[in-house]
Amino acid sequence: MESCSAVLQTARVQSVTLHELRHTYASTVVRNGAPLIIVAQALGHSDTRMAEKHYAHLAPSYVADTIRRMAPYI
Predict the structure, then answer these.
(1) Which long-range contacts (CB under 8 A, 24 or more apart) does 54-62 make?
(2) 8 Å CB contact between 29 and 58
(3) How much is the CA Rg of the chain, to the nearest whole Å?
(4) CB-based contacts of 65: which residues, under 8 Å, 6+ apart?
(5) Backbone dihedral region for residue 44 (phi beyond 0: left; psi -120 to 50: alpha; all else: beta)
(6) 4-54 pLDDT per residue, tens
(7) pLDDT band for position 1 (50/70/90)?
(8) From start to end of 13-72, where are the E strands?
(9) Helix axes 36-43, 18-31, angle to 10 degrees
């Protein structure tokens, strides 16, 4: 297993913070289709508001799913 500094050097990255890793994780799982409620729970949020605010635009089906859920049936 490579050391953290070796990985950063290979990636040509000088430093990375826990916040940046957390954001990258959340962004990646949302892009891969994880429901926002799961992302919110994984990040320790009590509801989906923060996940929706920061990551909803990355979800491939977020807009279509929201419209389907909110549109009235005629």
Answers:
(1) 54/23, 54/26, 55/26, 55/27, 55/30, 56/30, 58/27, 58/30, 58/31, 59/30, 59/31, 59/33, 60/31, 60/33, 61/33, 62/36
(2) no
(3) 16
(4) 59
(5) left
(6) 788 888 888 888 888 999 999 999 999 898 999 999 999 999 999 999 999
(7) low
(8) none
(9) 160
